[in-house]
Amino acid sequence: MAIQWADDFSRYGVGSASRTAMLDGLPYAVIDGSGGVGQVVVDPDPNVIGGRAFFIGIPNLTIALPNVVTGTVGVVSRYWLNNLPLNDATSPDTFILSTVSAVGIIAMRTRPNGSIQIRGRVAGVLTVVADSINPILQPSSWNNIELKFNTSTGVGSLYVNGVSRLTWTGVDTGNALALVAFRRSNIGSSSIGPPAFLKQLVIWDGTGSENNDTLGNVTVLRHKTTSDVTLGGWLPSVGATGFNLLAKNAPNDTTFLSGEDVPLPAAMAFEFENLPPDVTSVLALITVARHRKTDGGDGNVQTGLSPNGVDWDNGADRPITTAFQYDFDVSELSPATGLRWTPVEVDALRGRVDRTL
Predict the structure, then answer these.
(1) Distance (Å, whole) CA 200 – CA 347
(2) What separation in angstroms does the CA of 232 have from each of 244, 300, 304, 357?
(3) Whole-number Cα distances in Å, 189 to 111, 185, 219, 334
(4) Whole-number Å distance between alpha carbons of 184 and 272
(5) 257 — phi, psi (to 5°)?
(6) Which of 33, 125, 224, 341 is the most buried (most CB within 10 A)?
(7) Residue 225's beta-bridge partner residues?
(8) CA 252 → CA 209, 248, 272, 287, 338, distances in Å?
(9) Using CA atoms, how far apart are residues 126 and 45, in angstroms rounded to an integer?
(10) CA distances (Å), 314 to each of 170, 281, 287, 329, 333, in order?
(11) Please, what's the b/e burial string for 346-355 (b: 16 or more CB within 10 A of its CB; e: otherwise)?
(12) Is 252 exposed, middle or buried (0-12, 13-18, 19+ CB in 10 A)?
């Protein structure tokens, strides 16, 4: 597996409640830190109707990698600054790769003229290891940023809108990378940079046979359930259908499907929205489920995806807790072919939820 996490920020609602939802079991470790207003907001681009983005709070948004990386890690996201920073003190270290102790190893800094510096830890000290000098980023525009770094070799590269813009070598090696952070200020300064936003976020590593190198310009799409294949033995909290209770743009824990344990219910399954017609390839699918159990007894849930209702790629069989939480699984290969999912297969996609214990 190479893709560790991806998000379009459309399932959490907007405002402060979105921040609470993002911390319910997903890789998001810290939102805001000691202050600020990090949260999902309406896309700052006025030409994007109904879109969502994450507004970076003060000082940061931190993600704990689902799998710690000792080789190559990559971060892809569209990045928006309302304006360029006023001075070096307010120049944000936006993309930061850190150890489990939150020691920054690589940081991307945007400077007052829109140029980009990469600072890497050399002999234990953060040092400029690459500098575009000339402007790369413009204010009030979305740019696709991809940062790639190999902690085994100390070599890295930065791509902007699919084009290689910076490369570097000589960064300290042997550091296991455990955290990805996005900041509004630079490391070592308490001054705050300009308003900044993220969307279309993907984090990958160099393992496995798929998606283990530069991804380029990518789009993250959420596919909501559109119809029931079967409810199995699960019961809607209201009404007679289940898909509409799952197709939410913000958590609403008062409507749900329940599966009692005597006997265990048969799996429920659903169909999903089609891809836009201009999509030509699919890198991976991620199932995201929100659930809880009502007492301290056993309760395990497993999700799965199928292109045909026969061949299934099942996720982990997980115990759930008495508090609502999200769990997710990444599927990079179609269970029918052993190859990457195709747009045709995704348009025929079925997903199921099975209570296994």
Answers:
(1) 21
(2) 16, 16, 14, 15
(3) 14, 7, 33, 47
(4) 37
(5) -115, 140
(6) 341
(7) 272
(8) 38, 8, 20, 18, 36
(9) 34
(10) 41, 22, 10, 8, 11
(11) bbebbbbbbb
(12) exposed
Q: Provide CATH code, domain 225-355.
A: 2.60.120
Angle value at C-alpha 105, between 57 and 99, nearest 5 degrees? 80
As a residue count, the chain comes to 357
- Please give the class, per CATH, of domain 3-205: mainly beta
Pairing state of beta strands 196-205 and 3-7?
antiparallel
Locate CATH 2.60.120.200 in the chain: 3-205
Give the separation between CA 5 and CA 7, rounded to whole angstroms.
7
The one-letter code for the residue type at 350 is R
3-state SS, residue 149: strand
pLDDT digits (tens, 9 = 90+) for 251-299: 999 999 999 888 999 999 999 999 999 999 999 999 999 999 998 888 9
Q: Residue 233 in contact with residue 257, Cβ under 8 Å?
A: no
Q: Read off the pTM.
A: 0.96
Determine the residue type at 177. L
Model pLDDT for residues 163-186, shown as the tens digit of each residue: 999 999 999 999 999 999 999 988
